[in-house]
Amino acid sequence: MNELIENRLYTTTGDLTEMPFDILVNAANSSLLGGMGVDGAIHKAGGPQILAECRAIRKSKFPAGLPAGEAVETTAGSMPADYVIHTVGPVWNGGNEKEKAILYSAYMNSLLLGKNLGGKSIGFPSISTGAYGFPKKLAAETACRAIFDFITKHDSGNALMKIFLVFFHTKDEQIFQQVFTGMSMSDVSGLRVNSEFFRLESEFSD
Ligand code: AR6
Fold first, then answer.
1. What is the pTM of this model?
2. Each residue of 165-177: pLDDT tens digit?
3. DSSP annotation of 193
4. Atom of ligand 1 nearest to the CA of 169
5. Lower CB density within 10 Å: C or N end of the chain?
């Protein structure tokens, strides 16, 4: 486990369904009826109750499917977590179809919902970077923007939520950390960033 921002942001590598967080985020598709990747792993680990709740959500609120960028919650079925938040990332289509804005919304809406649900810890997979083909560096930058905005604008009180980014491969975690390190320091002003992940001011000038 790597702590990037003190008490707030962590990265790790492993299977999200085995992590002890209050809330697990699922990189779902609009049908909410399951799929491959992390979505398949969550439904498998949580059992049929999650699918039953997803079907009920489809029926009552989203008959045409959950739009990309939005987020809804179910219980975590037989997993120890309190909730699964299902969000839908964008399918990468070259970058001219608002993919970045949609990915930002997927993270932000999941974080806001997680906070509303009273979660003290929330674990994310790397949304859209598998089957949906979103470039990993750009996805990392977009996730960082949403997380920084959430932490500084929407979750700066006392009841703080710890955010865990769970990568399936060590290489993907490293890509994220490199991008995080290269982000402008003004984005995280006021937060205690682990010095290991702080790019030196001089590195920006050349
Ligand atoms: N724990 C953590 N990360 C995982 C796990 C896991 N158990 N399994 C895969 N990953 P993807 P997407 C990583 O394809 O790109 C599904 O079929 C994986 O290495 O799961 O948003 C849905 O139903 C990758 O980095 O999600 C949708 O149809 C990341 O999770 C579609 O895929 C996301 O890969 C969504 O595609």
1. 0.94
2. 999 999 999 999 9
3. B
4. 19
5. C
Q: Please tell me the distance between residue 195's alpha carbon and the centre of ligand 1 in angstroms.
A: 30
What distance in Å separates the CA atoms of residue 165 and residue 176, rounded to the nearest whole number?
A: 9
Task: Look up residue 174 and give its two tokens.
Answer: 């490293």
39 is catalytic: yes
pLDDT tens digits, 127-181: 999 999 999 999 999 999 999 999 988 987 666 899 999 999 999 999 999 999 8
Determine whether the shortest distance from the Cβ of 139 to ligand 1 is under 6 A: no
Q: Which of 39, 155, 187, 206 is catalytic?
A: 39
Contact of 170 with 183, CB cutoff 8 Å: no
Domains delineated in the chain: 2-204 (3.40.220.10)
β-pairing, 23-28 vs 83-88, is parallel
